Structure formats: structure tokens, C-alpha cells
Automatic annotation (TrEMBL), chain A:
One annotated GO molecular function: metal ion binding
A GO BP annotation: organic phosphonate catabolic process
UniProt-listed Enzyme Commission number(s): 4.7.1.1
Keyword 4Fe-4S: yes
Function recorded in the entry: Catalyzes the breakage of the C-P bond in alpha-D-ribose 1-methylphosphonate 5-phosphate (PRPn) forming alpha-D-ribose.
Species this protein is from: Marinobacter guineae
Family: Belongs to the PhnJ family.
Protein name as it appears in the record: Alpha-D-ribose 1-methylphosphonate 5-phosphate C-P lyase
Keyword entries, A-Z: 4Fe-4S, Iron, Iron-sulfur, Lyase, Metal-binding, S-adenosyl-L-methionine
Reactions the enzyme catalyzes: alpha-D-ribose 1-methylphosphonate 5-phosphate + AH2 + S-adenosyl-L-methionine = alpha-D-ribose 1,2-cyclic phosphate 5-phosphate + methane + 5'-deoxyadenosine + L-methionine + A + H(+)
Keyword Coiled coil: no
InterPro entries linked to this entry: PhnJ
Source organism, top-level taxon: Bacteria
TrEMBL record, chain B:
MF terms in GO: lyase activity
The protein's name: Carbon-phosphorus lyase complex subunit PhnI
Region of interest: Disordered: 169-194, 363-399
Gene Ontology BP terms: organic phosphonate metabolic process
The species this protein was found in: Marinobacter guineae
Keywords of the record: Lyase
Cross-referenced InterPro entries: PhnI
Presence of keyword Lyase: yes
């Protein structure tokens, strides 16, 4: 880190009177302890003394507390929402950390050391040393089958996951397919069934064996969980109905990608629509390197 | 070329400056001062302090001003500030017995030591719009007689002396601690995550911070038969209490200040067993400032939540601890409901992809084509745990 940016950091702190990255050090220590436990027991939901953040619950307060805890002055932060760096809430959260921690920010996935995300995993494969922080609305994968925390805790402890398979089976019986398309449950390290947060199931395979550290923060529900690097992450399925990811007949309007998650954009009121990469950085990278030419 | 709608920093800044302008309203009118709000919007200030868990009328008034009068937004502002404050120590329990009473009523006795004191209340006002206020006229106020109220003994203590009601510390309140004379410090859900089953101290804290509207509705539901508990408003008292702290280096209590609180003692249906004589039970409510509706609702819900402890069937929402405690905080609920305003393009797209596929298959089946997926070829036998061998397919999925 250059002296200039160091100075900027100290100025930032002095200016707004809050600790580095907003949270006080005692709170960070408490969260770090929970993070260590979460890493030690992959997929297990660790209760933590979540604090009120200056952003509303449900808007990323869990992810923000995790990011605030792991981030240091030398980190480079990227924040995405729906895969994009320029959606309003991503802008707001990135700005929060630029303001309270004075850290460098980036839109480039490879350049970032900490990436906070809502609803997507970047298309560019993550590398060793990177930390991916997920914002989690409902950490409990069994919540919609059994709303009671007292029950679900027991179910996890006993690995009583039959109900989840029954739910998936009922989908197949009614629709011919497993009808869960996002927040698709996974089994971590052969034990805990985990909610991967509402990422599309398209992203599920990226969690498996990732060299990056994946941390999950649920602020309102006050839970933290983690997938350490190189961990087994399996999406639940059946032998005769194997897990599969979404695909599109179309390609990205901008970069021509035929393998990334595409957002549908309605262009007129007569059924006109185009498809574009949801990961804006990935799309730009391809445009800049001329990758689009190869495909189109 | 189409450019997807994105909110840049500029858009956010513009939105906020527009908000500031809107909040200020017509600039030809004088601006509201925080002191005016504190003095003239006192009940709103009290609610913000109560649910914001911070006794500071000035900051609560500031929050109301900043929030354009949106109470939940103001509570949010106060909570977000509160959470950054260091906590030095816990106060000693406030002695509401020694309250400097400004209002005290009991619905259980016609008259009682200390008397019934109406105090400043909207009760018995006829809800007729007062057009004098509209014309900016101040009503001539007759100064109430400065008659200090004697120390009021607690209504429930009369009953307790006779053994007619359970003692104030219910069984569930007596926590195990090494030294019985020194009760364990009460739990604090702002530091530790809520854990079920919750003890009464935690429940009362959650209810005190809980949304007035939500608690009011739950309290009402108990009156209409969803977990009925036969309440009598044994006593409602409002006034100033002394907050004392014991700094470690002093070793004796000093007064940190006075706070205005509203307290409600509810007398509820009796219980008894073969070994215990029947007696009334209690529900308790306490709120900052003049927050009577909140204190009453809290007391009813507190009593309802004691169902498990008192051996009652838990059959109604108000008696269900997980249901009540998980949903009573209005920052939790307003945050999560309003997060629906955030983009969900990706999840929605995922649903679209699936729905189109299902519809396509449906049409194919309908038009007599071979059904592609109708019959699950080998439906998993539900009597067995479905065998899931994801290992191989996981590898297949892995690019």
C-alpha cells in the first residue's frame, strides 16, 4: 500500500469518527471467532451477535458485517448485486466501505481480494487467496419445510434430511423436474445441507472445490457459515434426476457468450427481448479481449 | 444499443438530495426545530425511544425530523446509532415502586392507597378535531394542581401479601447462579443472538423493543380467544424513576439520571395444581416515556408467552415464542419486506427459464406428443430414504 492511500485511510477515519470499516474491534473479534468456527465446521450455521448496521436488514447487513470483519487496509474490494457492479445496492455497499475503510475498490474479479455478492458467483473462476462474501436472507435451507428453529437444529444435528429429498421428489412428481431454480440446497463436506443463498443453481457447481474462501453472512437471522477452500459441495439430486443447470438458446447480445448466466431484458412491448450477461465484469472482459469475435 | 437501467452513484446522490428537499417541504414555512418535536410530538418521541432502545428524547426527536415523521425509519436511525455506543455498565434494576407518579390507575379496585390519578391522558377525550389548534390558537391551559402523589404501593403487592397472586419473580425468572442473592445479569439480545427457548428476561427485552402495532394485534388476538388469558389491568403507572449505577471504582450506587417510564402489571387467570393453591398469574409491560398502549400490549403478550411455563397448551400465535419473538422487531420485518425492492433479476430469470420449459412440455403433452417427462421412470421409493449418490454426477457437472 502506498503512503498516499494509507494517509487517505486515516483521513477517512478521522473524518467520520467511526472505526475502520465501521464495526468496533470488539465486534470484529466476536465475528472472527464465529468465522473460525464456521470454517472449521463447513456448512454449519454459527449464531453470532449480529449488530444493527446503518443499512436495512435484508439489504446485505450480514455480508457487510463479514466483509467489515475480514477486510484490511491492503484489500481490494469488489461488490456485486445480481452479478453486476453497478446495480444500486452494490454501489451503495461499495461506497460504504470506500467511505468507512478507505479501501481500494475494483470491478474486476481477478483484481479483487474480497468480493461481496448478492445472488451470483462471478463467472471468472476465483483463485487462491480470494474471499467471496455472500449476503444471505434466510440461512436455513429447511425453513420452508419446518419453520421452527428448535426443530431444524435437531434435524441438522441428526442429518435428518429426508424431508428435503421428499420436497424435491414432489417437484418431480408434479412437474417432471426439480422446480428449485435458485437457493438450490447443497450438501457441504458430506454433512450439512446448506442454503447457498439465492444464487441461481447455475452457480452451484462453482462452489465445489473452489480455491477461494466462501463466507456467508445473514444479518437479520444472525447466522454465519462458510465453505473453506477445496471443499466438497454437492447439489442434492437423485440418480435418475441428476442435478442440472440452466441453459439458454440465446447468447449474450454484447459479448456473444454462450456459457454465462444471461439476464433477459425486455426491449419493447411487443415481445422483443435481448439477453445479456448478468456478470457485467465478465462481459466487459470478453469485449475488451475480443473474445466475442471468436464466438460470433 | 439498449443500456440496462443501472443506478450509479449519481442517481443515488440525486435521489437523496431530492429527498432532503421533500423532507423540508415548503420553505416559506418555518422549519421545525428538534426541540419543537421533542416538546410537541412527545408520544412519537417516546415510541421511537422505546423501540429504538435508547432513552434520549433529543436524538429521538432528531431522528423523527430526519425521517419526515416515519416512526420506523426514526427507530432505525436511533438503533443504528445506539449500536455504535460503548456500554460501560448495566444499571441497577429501576425501582418502579418508588416512581414519582404522574399517572396511576387500577382497573381492579375502585379505590386504593395512593388513589387513582388520571394524569395527562387522551382517555375520555372526545375525539373531535379541535379546530382551535388548526387556527394556531393555543387553548388556555389551567395549571393542574401541584399536588404531589404519595408513594403508591403496588396493587399487585396487596394481592401478593394475601397469596392471591404469584410473586413477581416467576419461576422462570430465577436463574441459576452461584450466589442466590446476586441474580445473574439479564441477557441482552443486542449482544447475543436470540436462542430458543428464550428465558423471560430475553422475551421481555424483545417485547420492549418490539413493534407496537404487531404486539397490539397479538394482544388483541388473545382477547378474542386466540390464547385467552383473562386479563385485568391491575395497575398502570407512569412517572419518573431513578436510574442508578454502581461504578466499580466506587462500589456504591450513584444516580445517573431520571427517566420517564410507563409500567403495566396485568392480573391474569389463575392456575393451580394439586400441590399448589390456585392464584392469579401476571403479565408485565414496561416502556419508555408515555407509551401506555405499548405497555398494555406487552403485558398481554408476555403473559401469553408464559404458556409453556404455566403448563398451558400452546395453540395460538401469541403463545408461540418462536413466532412472536422472531417477528416482533420492526427493523427485521421492515428491512426484509422492503428488500423486495432490490433487484431479483437473476432469480426471476431462473424461474422464467424453468416455467417456459414446463409450459413447453405441457403443450407437447397436450398436443398428443410423447410425454417427455411425465412418468418418473423409477420413482424413488418413499419408504426408503432416497439414495442420493451425488458424487459421480457432481463430477459430471463440474466443468
Amino acid at each position: 500500500m502506498t503512503t498516499a492511500s494509507l494517509k487517505q485511510t486515516t483521513d477517512t477515519q478521522a473524518e467520520n469518527g467511526y472505526n475502520f470499516a465501521y464495526l468496533d474491534e470488539q465486534t470484529k473479534r466476536m465475528i472472527r471467532r464465529c468465522l473460525l468456527k464456521a470454517v472449521a465446521v463447513p456448512g454449519y450455521q454459527v449464531p453470532f451477535g449480529g449488530r444493527e448496521m446503518p443499512l436495512p436488514y435484508g439489504w446485505g447487513t450480514g455480508g457487510m458485517q463479514v466483509t467489515a470483519t475480514v477486510i484490511g487496509e491492503n484489500d481490494v474490494l469488489k461488490v456485486i448485486d445480481q452479478g453486476a457492479d453497478d446495480t444500486t445496492n452494490a454501489v451503495s455497499i461499495r461506497r460504504f466501505f470506500a467511505r468507512t475503510a478507505g479501501v481500494a475498490t475494483t470491478e474486476s474479479t481477478p483484481e479483487a481480494s474480497v468480493i461481496q455478492t448478492r445472488h451470483r458467483i462471478p463467472e471468472t473462476p476465483l483463485t487462491r487467496g480470494q474471499i467471496l462474501v455472500y449476503q444471505v436472507p434466510i440461512p436455513e435451507p429447511l425453513r420452508f419445510i419446518e419453520p421452527r428453529e428448535t426443530e431444524t437444529r435437531k434435524m441438522h444435528a441428526l442429518q435428518e434430511y429426508g424431508v428435503m429429498h421428499v420436497k424435491l421428489y414432489e417437484d418431480i412428481a408434479r412437474f417432471g423436474h426439480i422446480a428449485t431454480t435458485y437457493a438450490y440446497p447443497v450438501k457441504v463436506n458430506g454433512h450439512y445441507v446448506m442454503d447457498p443463498s439465492p444464487i441461481p443453481k447455475f452457480d452451484n457447481p462453482k462452489m465445489h472445490g473452489s480455491p477461494a474462501l466462501q463466507l456467508f453472512g445473514a444479518g437479520r437471522e444472525k447466522r454465519i457459515y462458510a465453505i473453506p477452500p477445496f471443499t466438497r459441495v454437492e447439489s442434492l439430486d437423485f440418480e435418475d434426476h441428476p442435478f442440472e443447470i440452466q441453459g439458454w438458446d440465446q447468447t449474450c447480445e454484447f459479448c456473444g457468450s454462450d456459457h454465462s448466466f444471461l439476464d433477459e431484458v425486455v426491449t419493447d412491448d411487443e415481445g422483443g427481448r435481448i439477453f445479456i450477461c448478468s456478470d457485467t465484469d465478465y462481459c466487459n472482459q470478453r469485449l475488451n479481449t475480443g473474445a466475442s469475435m471468436e464466438v460470433v | 444499443m439498449y443500456v440496462a437501467v443501472k443506478g450509479g452513484e449519481k442517481a443515488i446522490d440525486q435521489a437523496h438530495s431530492w429527498l432532503d428537499e421533500t423532507r423540508r417541504g415548503d420553505t416559506s414555512l418555518p422549519e421545525l426545530s428538534v426541540a419543537q418535536i421533542r416538546e410537541q410530538m412527545g408520544l412519537a418521541v417516546d415510541r421511537v425511544m422505546t423501540e429504538g432502545s435508547l432513552y434520549d428524547p433529543e436524538l429521538a426527536a432528531l431522528a423523527l425530523k430526519q425521517a419526515s415523521g416515519d416512526v420506523i425509519e426514526a427507530i432505525f436511525l436511533l438503533r443504528a446509532y445506539r449500536t455504535t455506543l460503548p456500554r460501560f455498565l448495566a444499571s441497577r434494576p429501576v425501582e418502579t415502586n418508588k416512581m414519582a407518579i404522574r399517572r396511576r390507575i387500577s382497573a381492579a379496585y375502585k379505590d386504593l392507597p395512593g388513589g387513582q390519578v388520571l394524569g395527562p391522558t387522551y382517555d375520555y377525550t372526545h375525539r373531535l378535531l379541535d379546530f382551535t389548534l388548526l387556527a394556531n390558537g393555543e387553548r388556555s391551559t389551567t395549571q393542574p394542581a401541584e399536588e404531589s402523589v404519595e408513594d403508591c404501593p403496588r396493587v399487585l403487592d396487596f394481592l401478593n401479601n394475601e397469596g392471591l397472586i404469584e410473586s413477581p419473580l416467576a419461576k422462570s425468572d430465577q436463574k441459576q447462579s452461584g450466589n442466590p442473592s446476586e441474580p445473574e445479569a439479564p441477557a441482552d439480545l443486542t449482544r447475543q443472538p436470540l436462542d430458543y427457548p428464550a428465558d423471560r428476561d430475553l422475551r421481555l427485552q424483545a417485547l420492549a423493543r418490539g413493534d407496537e402495532g404487531f404486539l397490539l394485534a397479538l394482544a388483541y388476538s388473545t382477547q378474542r380467544g386466540y390464547g385467552r388469558n383473562h386479563p385485568f389491568a391491575g395497575e398502570i403507572r407512569q412517572g419518573e424513576v431513578v436510574v442508578e449505577i454502581v461504578p466499580e471504582e466506587l462500589g456504591f450506587p450513584i444516580i445517573a439520571g431520571d427517566i420517564l417510564v410507563t409500567e403495566c402489571d396485568m392480573i391474569n387467570q389463575f392456575s393451580g395444581t394439586e400441590t399448589e393453591a390456585p392464584r392469579f398469574t401476571r403479565g408485565y409491560g414496561l416502556a419508555f416515556g408515555n407509551s401506555e398502549r405499548k405497555a398494555l400490549a406487552m403485558a398481554l403478550v408476555d403473559r401469553a408467552l408464559r404458556a409453556r411455563e404455566l403448563g398451558e397448551d400452546v395453540v395460538s400465535p401469541a403463545q408461540d415464542e418462536e413466532f412472536v419473538l422472531a417477528h416482533c422487531d420492526n427493523l427485521d420485518s421492515s428491512g426484509f419486506v422492503s428488500h423486495l425492492k432490490l433487484p431479483h433479476y437473476v432469480d426471476f430469470q431462473s424461474e422464467l427459464v424453468l416455467l417456459r420449459r414446463l409450459r413447453k412440455e405441457f403443450e407437447e403433452r397436450k398436443s398428443g406428443g410423447q410425454s417427455p417427462q411425465v412418468e418418473p421412470t423409477t420413482a424413488p421409493d418413499l419408504n426408503d430414504e432416497p439414495t442420493v449418490n451425488t458424487q459421480q454426477r457432481r463430477e459430471a457437472n463440474q466443468v
